[in-house]
Amino acid sequence: MLETKVISNSEVLYVGRDDGDTSPSTKALHDFQINGGGGGGLIRSWVDSMRACSPTRPKSFNNQSCWIKEHPSALNMFEEILNKSEGKQVVMFLDYDGTLSPIVDDPDRAFMSKKMRNTVRKLAKCFPTAIVSGRCREKVSSFVKLTELYYAGSHGMDIKGPEQGPKYKKENQSLLCQPATEFLPVINEVFKKLLEKTKSIPGAKVENNKFCASVHFRCVEENKWSDLANQVRSVLKNYPKLMLTQGRKVLEIRPIIKWDKGKALEFLLESLGYNNCTDVFPIYIGDDLTDEDAFKILRDKKQGLGILVSKYAKETNASYSLQEPDEVMDFLERLVDWKQLRCGA
User: Fold this and answer.
1) Of residues 18, 31, 48, 95, which has the active-site annotation?
2) What single string gives the DSSP state of each residue in 291-315?
3) Bridge partners for 246 per DSSP
4) Cβ(31)–Cβ(245) under 8 Å?
5) Whole-model pTM?
6) DSSP assignment letter at 277
7) How many CB atoms lie within 10 A of CB 81?
8) For 146-174, how does the pLDDT look when each residue is reduced to its tens digit (9 = 90+)?
9) 95 is catalytic
10) What does the alpha-carbon distance between residue 105 and residue 88 come to, in Å, rounded to a whole number?
11) Strand pairing partners for 306?
12) Tens digit of pLDDT for each residue in 61-70?
């Protein structure tokens, strides 16, 4: 019988906001102060941050070319990446939206292609593979439709191992990590209030992702962003234990706990038996600001590498870049081919 390992909220500390961290995701958190200051100025800072996090046009050519030198294409530098991973166990971590599937107007229709699914299936046969998403775990699992993967939903606050038992784990133990269970009632309550409050904003869509709530504004006219920010703030100002972060055309309402995609990455590595190992090489691929927490962990530990999926130059802790999901698929295919060749498959 499989044993389930549960981590509760009692093992997770609340977030401190004065630790000096200047990573992209932390700065975004500081931008989104929910209370304090003048209401108008606060909302303007929110909207400015929303624009900065959701670029609609590329940077200047000089900036773009400099950025590419600092974050070269993972496809062009594939041999260099292989050399760095030589003699180590590769472990794959993949975001979903914008990484395995294209960004679409309707988040309920962010389907991955059959070809991408087949590529990820082959990848999981070669390396331990986890999907790390802001989506509800059940929803992202229903999109991917592969039972042999690890899934970390709600920005890593809901983690579950493969249904048939982890192939790479020495102990026959399934995984269940839910560090924010005490927040389920309040997230549901806020979700319902946000649904009601945002009805007046054309194009706004609120999504319940179990341990967090998401307010999508991809289909909201930019001149309505301040109205949307006002409505969101009017709800959140009454919930001091929730915080607001941002992604690509989405506002994320999350519990104020020290848990994010970076913590999820560390938890999964430890669960796989690779905690403090020097012979493991995690590769994390993602496109969103929330993925920066995982990129930063890898950068600070000088372990493995992060790959940002973006057509635009942006501040990042990732080492390499890919432009779109099609390039992600090409990179994953090359990894699979390399592994199969080494194993004589």
Assistant:
1) 95
2) GHHHHHHHHHHT-SEEEEE-SS---
3) 251
4) no
5) 0.86
6) -
7) 22
8) 999 999 999 999 999 998 655 555 444 56
9) yes
10) 40
11) 284
12) 457 889 999 9
